[in-house]
Amino acid sequence: MNAMELLTTRRTYRRFAQKAVPQDVVDDIVQAVRLSSCGANRQAVRLVLVQSPEMVAKVQPLVKWAGYLPPEQGTPKADELPTFYAAVVQDTAIPGDLATDTGIALANMTLAAWDKGVGSCIMGAINKPALTTLLGIEEPQKLAFMVAFGYPTHKAAIVPMTEQTGVKYYLDENRDYCVPKRSAEEIARSL
Ligand SMILES: Cc1cc2nc3c(=O)[nH]c(=O)nc-3n(C[C@H](O)[C@H](O)[C@H](O)COP(=O)(O)O)c2cc1C
């Protein structure tokens, strides 16, 4: 896959095969964060890798799926759950624009996984207090996001954003995700 194919197909996935994410993909995810550009090269983003089935099971009820969809459509069922989570943590003792650095790290790690066929869902709607305790995250480290990973069992495609669709993703008749995106003309203007 070239870079534009990777960017086009690296969508958010929310239903997964019950198959472990291999260690080489987990290693790539770590490297993708390690190699990320960041302000003043301060490298304040950290990961907690949740790989054991027992810990993954404890994380599942603490994340919220697909806010635009009713739970019966957007929340993965027991046999559709992700098999690996990475907690994305900021070391707040390190000064800088942690939000931007975290965003770049999220983009890189999800792209690295997708390059090996592993889909992901960046999750901001999470129970931070409960996850912070569960994962043993201590000050000055701060939990920012969870990212769910697994082998997707559905497709996800870009559709043009219209007045009808707005920004809300929806499922088509095959339960595949349709993700409306604004036109290139709306995104960029040339002078
Ligand atoms: C910062 C951020 C937070 C998100 N939080 C959640 C979440 O809590 N639950 C969820 O199901 N999806 C979440 N998503 C996924 C978005 O809904 C998804 O990226 C968006 O609908 C566009 O779809 P796409 O990633 O396929 O382009 C989040 C994405 C980002 C970037």
UniProtKB/TrEMBL annotation:
InterPro entries: Nitroreductase (IPR029479), Nitroreductase-like (IPR000415)
Keywords: Oxidoreductase
Domain Nitroreductase intervals: 8-151
The family this protein is said to belong to: Belongs to the nitroreductase family.
Protein name (Swiss-Prot/TrEMBL): Nitroreductase family protein
Organism listed in the record: Faecalibacterium intestinale
